[in-house]
Design a protein that fits this description.
This protein is α/β, with parallel strands linked by helices and 126 residues long. It has one domain (2-125): 3-Layer(aba) Sandwich (Rossmann fold), CATH 3.40.50. The chain is 51% helix and 13% strand. The two termini are 15 Å apart.
């Protein structure tokens, strides 16, 4: 069971050549056990409103993920509390939420970010 970080999610959804081959393989193999976080959709929406060059259609992103068998992971208070247990390696609140969600839900967080990958637990850098 995998949870894709926001960058990998965007690359997978757009079939981008930036998606590492290992990530593509793991995502395909995961089938119905592919998860995306509501926090990633929120992050994309914030980037869309702040940066005109970020041209992602966030509504289409979410719909496309759901239509293609991805499962949505909502953010809940247990996830929020779990952020407290994370070491202060990285300050990005979205990445920290994804890490907490992966820990609480027993998912493996896929990331291409070396800082995020330095966290202990179920994090896999691809």
């Amino acid at each position: 069971m995998i949870l894709a970080d926001t960058h990998l999610l965007l690359w997978a959804a757009s079939n981008s050549p930036r998606l590492p081959a290992k990530a593509r393989t793991l995502i395909l193999e995961a089938g119905e056990q592919r998860w995306f976080s509501a926090a990633s959709i929120w992050e994309a929406a914030i980037k869309r409103t702040r940066h005109k060059q970020f041209e992602v259609n966030v509504q289409a992103l979410r719909s496309g993920l759901l239509d293609n068998g991805w499962r949505e992971l909502v953010v809940n208070s247990e996830h929020g509390v779990a952020v407290l247990d994370l070491p202060p390696i990285h300050n990005d609140p979205f990445d920290r939420m994804l890490l907490a969600q992966a820990k609480v839900e027993g998912l493996t967080l896929l990331t291409s970010d070396k800082i995020v990958a330095s966290y202990p637990g179920n994090v896999l850098r691809v």
